Amino acid sequence: MATPDPLPRLLAPFVENPARAGILTDFDGTLAPIVDHPGAARPLPGAVELLHDLARHYRRVAVISGRPAAFLVAQLHLADEDEVNEGEAPGEGLVVSGLYGLEVAMGDAITAHPDCDLWRPMVERVADEADEQAPTGVFVERKGLSVTLHYRTAPEAEAWVQRWAASAAGWSGLIEHPARMSVELRPPIPVDKGRVVEELAERLDAACFFGDDVGDLPAYEALDRLHAKGVATLKVVVRSPEAPPELLATADVLVDGPTGALDLLRRMLPGAGRPASPGPIAG
Fold it and tell me: Quick one: which of 147, 185, 11 has its CA closest to 68?
């Protein structure tokens, strides 16, 4: 006897009542393939249209990323939204939370955490120092409110990046945040993806998150807290050779790469039905 597919049961709280549910997702490695240079990242074909389509059905659809909000606004075509929610549709349109919650965008209007301006000069100083001292192949990404040192194209520089980031954190007051082949330095403002998830899922009956890296762990921990309060939750992890084991262990559903994430998101459209091709793995 074939084992029943558990995915329809896991998706039921979402597809059966999208007006009371939220779909929350990361960007890099989830909607967009990982690339050598962060500026080259682009969402997979069809991803932007799918997100906006989901936003017309669900109470809340949001991209929560370490990217600056302005980058996400451009890539996700938020400025092109021509439908304004006036209470006729369940949702509020696609929402963006950038820099792990330091910035929020609805449409092309971006607001930053009120404490951010205090830290802009120090972030710029750290970025200047990194540009001067980084070895060849290390890319210094300036995000305005944070700075990331990428060593994907220079893996031999990993130890240098980690030492330098630790030293910079010591004299600047910024906080180190390791990620895929990179270390980010951010202001010590108490926000992360977990706090964003809890805020966006407030008063929802169901909430899910799609992620792929250690920076997404707080989002899954937030889903656990919401589940304890009676919210139906779904933890979707995008599997890759670089996915940390602790992330894979927390998954309710594993999908293979951004393509797998998009396939599952399509299944979450009300009335989408079940695809004929093999789907995600539900744990």
Answer: 147
What SS3 string covers 54-91?
HHCCCCEEEEECCCCHHHHHHHCCHHHCCCCCCCCCCC
Q: Name residue, tokens 């329809």.
A: 8
- Among 129, 154, 186, the domain-final residue is 186
Q: What angle in degrees, to the nearest 10, is found between the helix axes of 47-55 and 257-267?
A: 30
Phi and psi angles of residue 204, each rounded to the nearest 5 degrees, phi first? -90, 155
Find, among 148, 221, 153, 142, the residue nearest to 178 by Cα. Answer: 148
How far out from the chain centre does Cα 99 lie?
A: 10
Q: Which of 120, 126, 125, 23 is nearest to 68 (CA)?
A: 120
88 vs 180: CA distance, rounded Å: 41
d(CA 31, CA 267): 15
Inter-residue contact 61 to 22 (CB < 8 Å): yes
Per-residue model confidence (pLDDT) at position 278: 41
pLDDT averaged per 10 residues, the chain (length 283): 74 96 97 89 96 96 95 91 49 89 91 94 97 96 95 95 97 94 95 96 96 94 97 96 90 96 96 54 59
Shared-domain flag, residues 78 and 94: yes
Whether residue 281 lies inside any domain: the answer is no
Question: What is the C-alpha separation between 220 and 55, in angstroms, rounded?
Answer: 21
Side-chain half-sphere CA neighbours of 3 within 13 A:
6
pTM of the model: 0.88
Give the structural domain span for 131.
116-186
Q: pLDDT at position 32, please?
A: 96
Q: What is the spatial distance between Cα 52 and Cα 34, in angstroms, rounded to a whole number?
A: 22
Q: The domain that contains 165 carries what CATH number?
A: 3.30.70.1020
CB-facing half-sphere around the CA of 147: CA atoms within 13 A: 26
